[in-house]
Amino acid sequence: MSFPYKGVVDQFADGGALLKSASRIPRIVEIADATLPLNDDDYAMVVKTASETVRRFPTHDAGNTLVSALYFRRAEATLPDEIAKTARVHLNWKLEHYGLQPLPEREVEKVASAPPRERFPVKSAQQTVEAANFYEKYASQLPREQRAELATRVLQAAPVFDVMPGRRLVSETLNEWNEKLASHIEQRTEILRSWANTPEDADKLTRQLDALSKIASAKETEPGVTPEAVMHALETFDRRTALSTLWGRQLSEPWEAVYKQASVEVTPADQAIASEYWIRQSATSTTFLSALDELFGDDVEESWRADPVAAFESLIPTQRVLVRRMLDGLANGAA
Is the pLDDT of residue 310 over 80? Predict the structure, then answer.
């Protein structure tokens, strides 16, 4: 099988491109050995397949170890856990050996290992913004139960502090299917086919495509299956097949592939203050009421006409997020 971790490079794989933007290069890097080492023990990451051995992140001298640490930090989140852990241990051992600072603890690991009450504080607008940003960036790396915990906390705090959750959280909460899911599955199929170069690869490819086909057809073949369940299945599949290394480059992340994307531009830093004045004004806007009906149905629209303030307070957190954006647009349009 050809090397599956296509997006993972080091200073030898990309010609040191990461260093070209540096304002100053340490002396130990300038004098580092530019010869590619041949010994597996001189690399933090070694992946062997039936047809080849691929090595990344050389550590045969101080300069290369320091640069490898930079490249590894950029790639770590895309690697399967066992490979990432092995590489991190090797790099820290070599960094210590050369008298260099060890790799910093991953931000997501700091949060995940914290006591539950301290893990996702949302006692202020600033903390809620930070938690929402953290979700957008690291949700895929969190254990499923902690991911759900963080989502719940952000959604509960967002309407209290007038904070807008990010697109990922809103899309997941709306829990609707992406009509382009099939094309995202096809992209994965094509990449897996391009990686199969030997008879052993062909057998493995057959099993992979069968698993991928089951994920793709779950919506039609499994009554009651939810986008969330399919998203988790696709996420697991991507990690097991190394497709996760292509997220954000050649492939969309599983949540983007499976969920219908929120139709409004929302970012955690947005602040849409929906004052009681604009809530009441909205009850006289035909455009606003039509949009409300289209989003949430007749019952919500009728309640809004009768008592918009009470209707707003009865909305669930995700609905409030969307309505706040609509109210903000109403206010801006009148300005």
Answer: yes
